[in-house]
Specification:
3-stranded parallel sheet; 5 strands; 141 residues; alpha/beta
Length: 141
Amino acid sequence: MLDVNMPRLNGLDCLTRIKELDPSIIVIVMTAYSTIEDAVRAIKEGAYNYLAKPIKHQAVVEMVQRAIEAQTMVRSMAFSAPVVKFDAGEIVGSSNEMQKIFAIIHKLAKVDTSVLIRGESGTGKELVARAIHYNSAPKGS
């Protein structure tokens, strides 16, 4: 959990650095000085959620529980195969849902058009985008 206003480093800048190191880390951003611009930036940078203070204790507990469940699902899928490679690593999984995603990635990697990837924060949109790009044919070939 990060606060937007921190002493040495702005929480949003910290979020960016965290996601550069490991996009799978779940980060919840909170602030007493909520702005739409900060909320949009936090979500675009990969925050799991953006909360305006004051925050109800139970709401935080439930959100952290959901974040842990999401992380657990991602990690459990990471123990299975097959693998789709991309420039920063691999996406791993063997469930039916992951097989469908891998098939879509491979199909989209073959088309020469822009692709819009939509989904909730923390679902792996950036990983899918990188996998499509990495697996596509180089331009001019």
